[in-house]
Amino acid sequence: MSYYISPRFLDKLAVHITKNFMNLPGVKVPLILGVHGRKGEGKSFQCELVFEKMGIIPVRMSAGELESPDAGDPVRLIRMRYREAAELIRVRGKMCVLLINDLDAGAGRVDRMTQYTVNTQLVNGTLMNIADNPTDVQLPGSYETEPIHRVPIIATGNDFSTLYAPLVRDGRMEKFYWQPSHEDRIGVVAGIFAPDRLSATDVERLVETFPRQSLDFFGALRSQLYNNQVREFINKVGLGQVSTHLVNNPGQRLQFDQTKVGLTHLIEIGQHLQQEQTQLQETRLAGEYFAGAKSSKSGRSRNLQPKPKPSVPLTQAPEPVRTESSYVSDSNGTFPQDDWPEKVAVAKIEQLLQRAILQGGRLTLEVARPREKSNNVWRTWPWPQPPKNATHALAGIKTCLQEHPNSFIRLIGYNPQTQTRLLEELIVRP
């Protein structure tokens, strides 16, 4: 199978690697090339294709190797892999690179809750030291005077802004933001479906049908085409015999018929995959469970405290709640008279609440500070008591707004039986 290599990607890696093997007088060449971009766009796979095309031997590391229960182990491993690549250059007479996949996942800090360990500090310091002295990389406890070969480092990741700032400065790391163009996407997808003989017109229409999907989406789409043949194989062998049949016949090659690929069928499968993505993003059961546990805990704490004696007779009527007549009209909507902030369209919110309640849904609120919202991180806000109607729900929203005055607030309505969302609306902007 012939895979597509983006000319822009090939040019960037080829120039960076070649420069690191050339002696350019008076020119400081960064040792590290940081390839960053959205998830699933084929950064690591494009790197492997470039290595194969140029005849380069990669020595690989992953983010999972940048942490250890023992302080200093990741640093020792980085130095060993670097020296291993330098030795391969000397012995085999070919270019070698050190490839570190998902560097930001192992050495980055996403927020203040991310643990910053001694190993993280040592990894950053070691990579900075190697970038500054690429021919003098020693193992701990070993000091050799003979220089080793310079080895360019390729690091992939999603968000390099989470890395230690001195590590990503221009003298040490050259940055390359990988976002495939429309032509790149068509070329990659055409390579994926090349064995299926999908026409160029159908490939272009398929890419245009799912413009916001990453490239790995189309690889998963092709994988779904063989599900029916796998089911037929399971039925032929027997569900109880599949385990022993496949494990005890490792050399057996299974023959699958060439699937007949049609654009309409591919779009149907793609829409199903897209629905699964939406379901995953909208379920958010963990936040609901956490909010429920928190409310239950606070409820138990309140029950343990002695109840104060009522200071008014039990027959006295409770304080009236705010009604529609308490709102005043404005150009931006309808607002309460007193302490609701401006630009909070209370009338519109009340309509949303009534619609969700009429549909039999439950209501939740989610809050996020501006930085959290930019990373799509929302926290469930527990209601003091479940809202029975729109008026009670407005009172809860008002309490949430007082507790989180500088946060985004969105209203969620969901069906408690099917766990599907009926409503999702951003109602407050800071």
TrEMBL record:
Kinase listed as a keyword: no
Compositionally biased tracts (Polar residues): 295-304, 323-335
UniProt-listed SMART domains: RuBisCO_small
InterPro entries: ATPase_AAA_core, P-loop_NTPase, RCA-like, RuBisCO_activase_AAA_helical, RuBisCO_ssu_dom, RuBisCO_ssu_sf
Residue segments, region Disordered: 292-335
Domain spans labelled Ribulose bisphosphate carboxylase small subunit: 331-430
GO MF entries: ATP binding; ATP hydrolysis activity
Keywords, comma-separated and alphabetical: ATP-binding, Nucleotide-binding
Pfam family, one: RuBisCO_activase_AAA_helical
Similarity remark: Belongs to the RuBisCO activase family.
Name recorded for this polypeptide: Ribulose bisphosphate carboxylase small subunit domain-containing protein
Species, as recorded: Acaryochloris thomasi RCC1774
